Amino acid sequence: MDRIAIISDIHGNIPALSAVLDDIRSRGVDVIYCLGDLIGKGPDGDIAVDMIQANCERIVRGNWDDFILSKTEEEALRWHQRKLGQKRLDTLAKLPFCIEFYMSGKWVRLFHASPRSVYERVQPWDELEKRLSLFEGSACCLSDREADVAGYGDVHNAFLQHLDGKTLFNTGSVGNPLDMPQASYVILEGRYDSRTSAALSMQWVRVPYDIERAVQDAVSSGMPFLDNYIEELRTGRYRSRS
């Protein structure tokens, strides 16, 4: 059987990313896919881009990876742009939209937020029709066929749902989890590139990491929106929630 570790939403949090990569290696998983948002929110997007490039076989574009490329007068975004530098911005600009492959007879599609856009947000509690639309193909994807298995990041909430005979999952977030304050990723196991039906499994892994070190990294960096970011790291709750 083949195993793929799927990570997403690192958001410049290097203590979390390092802990996840160490955990993946300890399990003997050699192939890692990343579903975007390498940068933003956290302080060290530059290091995250370099580490993801060095460790991940395939990487897709997230919303932060996309809008950071645009010229802006917003100082918070300019801070992240300066930290990244032009070479890394050029790397982000070249990231593909999605990953598609057969595994154990299932057509698997992985993307950041939806098969249509890196900006379309779908939560696990949204209406059924909206969640079912995540199996659809689009002009953004490599094919227009419906996926049997669809996986994504973006919402920072790890979950698994079986919908009309199909499987929808979210990896959760490595660097900015908003369901509990531990890094999250998924291991997908099956027969890669096989159209023959076979066993297929998914394992969610929660990895504790040194949150206070991540807090100190953020404080030392002088990053924007510091207090909100620290609160999210420590509580695993989105800053706008009551």
Can you put this structure into words, describing what you see?
This protein is an alpha/beta fold. The chain has one domain (2-235): 4-Layer Sandwich (Purple Acid Phosphatase, chain A, domain 2), CATH 3.60.21.10. The chain has helices spanning 14-26, 45-55, 63-67, 75-93, 128-132, 211-221, 226-235, and strands spanning 2-7, 31-34, 58-59, 98-103, 106-111, 149-152, 159-163, 166-170, 183-190, 201-207. Helix 5 (128-132) links the parallel strand 5 and strand 6. The longest helix is centred in the middle third of the chain and has 19 residues, at 75-93. The termini are far apart. The model has no long low-confidence stretch (mean pLDDT 96).
Helices, strands, pairings?
Elements: E1 2-7, H1 14-26, E2 31-34, H2 45-55, E3 58-59, H3 63-67, H4 75-93, E4 98-103, E5 106-111, H5 128-132, E6 149-152, E7 159-163, E8 166-170, E9 183-190, E10 201-207, H6 211-221, H7 226-235
Helix pairs in contact: 2-4, 6-7
> Class in CATH?
Alpha Beta
Give the class from helix and strand content and strand pairing. alpha/beta
Instruction: Look at the structure and give the mean pLDDT.
Output: 96
Classify the beta-strand content into a percent band: 15-25%
CATH superfamily, called what?
Metallo-dependent phosphatases
Q: Per the principal axes of the C-alpha atoms, what is the gross shape?
A: globular
InterPro entries: Ap4A_hydrolase, Calcineurin-like_PHP_lpxH, Metallo-depent_PP-like, Pesterase_MJ0912
Family: Belongs to the metallophosphoesterase superfamily. YfcE family.
Pfam family, one: Metallophos_2
Domain Calcineurin-like phosphoesterase: 3-189
